[in-house]
Design goal:
Elements (H helix, E strand, L loop, with lengths): L6 E4 L15 E4 L2 E2 L5 H4 L10 E2 L20 E3 L6 H20 L7 E5 L3 H12 L4 E5 L3 H10 L3 E3 L10 H16 L11 E4 L4 H10 L5 E4 L11 H6 L3 E4 L7 H10 L9 E5 L4 H10 L10 E4 L10
Parallel strand pairs: 6-7, 6-9, 7-8, 9-10, 10-11, 12-13
Antiparallel strand pairs: 1-2, 2-5, 3-4
Helix pairs in contact: 2-3, 2-8, 5-6
Length: 315
């Protein structure tokens, strides 16, 4: 199976009904073609389409090749300010837009805590900052990831304590939440409360801690994928009257908004690209991502692979 779903490229050919694109246009590619006829599609929630053909999701091949066919409305023209790398990064940025802006409904001056400082978590922080969040708290267990998050978009950081011998995940989450509240002055209500929590880690203890630190009446959004069976304290959800949502990929309007945020300079994607490889070195790119660091010893955030016959310097 061909891999790849975060992509940009140049239009090679268009169909007879495509009028907004022409050969030579630079575009960002939304990699999920939906049926357009099911209930989800007709409701405008096409990300829930049961018949979606998503790139690099079996049995469908991905975008890492010379050519890739895509419906015309899923190819978004890139403004002149955006590079091909920016165009490829619009995909994970759209995931963040969907989680923070659409489902999280974050408003100016509200506060947010994000668990997980991987690419999606970092982009959630960037979206929150772009929307005028008063406080953006980054949570992770890796110090250098927290350092990068603070330099990129976070206002505060928190590194959870180590799990004690014999301590259950639930007991840990209660202790971690108490420590986090004390260290960062987080309140259950009011201006020091956390309006929105987004988990981009998928880790059970992060999920449990996030539900405990969000304010009463607040919103919790799950975007990270982890183990399918996770213990959640429903009494906390009920007594705090939380709104809990799952966030899956992206939907109507998310790609255009993501492109607009970058074009206006409200989100800078360039600092996230840590490693670059030619098409011929694609295998090395995947190995580098799996190892978590390159031959230079630098930690991986996002790895870019150029197209066939395209120099890395041209991205």
């Amino acid at each position: 199976m061909v891999l790849g779903h975060e992509s940009s490229g140049v239009i090679a050919k268009v169909g007879s009904l495509v009028s907004h694109l022409k050969p030579g246009d630079r575009v960002s590619i939304e990699p999920g073609a939906t049926c357009r006829t099911c209930v989800a599609c007709k409701e405008g929630r096409y990300e829930l389409c049961p018949n979606i053909r998503f790139a690099a999701t079996p049995p469908f091949d991905g975008t890492l090749g010379r050519y890739y066919a895509v419906p015309g409305d899923l190819a978004y023209p890139l403004p002149s300010e955006l590079s091909f790398e920016d165009g490829a990064m619009i995909e994970p940025l759209s995931v963040a837009v969907h989680a923070v802006a659409k489902l999280g409904n974050l408003r100016t001056s509200e506060s947010i805590a994000i668990f997980g400082c991987g690419p999606v978590g970092l982009l959630c922080m960037a979206v929150a900052k772009a929307f005028g969040a008063s406080r953006v708290i980054a949570v992770d267990i890796v110090p250098h990831r927290l350092e990068f998050a603070k330099s990129y978009a976070a206002t505060d950081t928190f590194m959870p304590p180590l799990l004690e011998q014999g301590e259950t995940n639930v007991a840990f989450s209660k202790r971690a939440a108490a420590l986090m509240k004390a260290a960062l002055g987080i309140a259950e209500q009011g201006d020091r409360g956390i309006d929105l929590v987004v988990d981009a880690s998928g880790a059970e203890m992060s999920i449990q801690t996030g539900i405990r630190i969000v304010k009463s009446g607040g919103t919790y959004v799950q975007v990270g994928m982890g183990r399918p069976d996770v213990a959640i304290d429903m009494s906390t959800v009920v007594c705090k009257q939380l709104t809990v949502k799952g966030s899956f990929r992206y939907g109507a309007g998310d790609y255009p908004l993501a492109i607009s945020l970058v074009a206006q300079g409200k989100v800078d994607l360039k600092p996230l690209v840590s490693h670059r490889f030619s098409f011929q070195d694609a295998l090395l790119a995947f190995e580098t991502t799996r190892n978590g660091k390159g031959s230079d010893g630098k930690g991986v955030i996002k790895t870019m692979i150029s197209g066939p016959d395209v120099k890395v310097s041209e991205l």
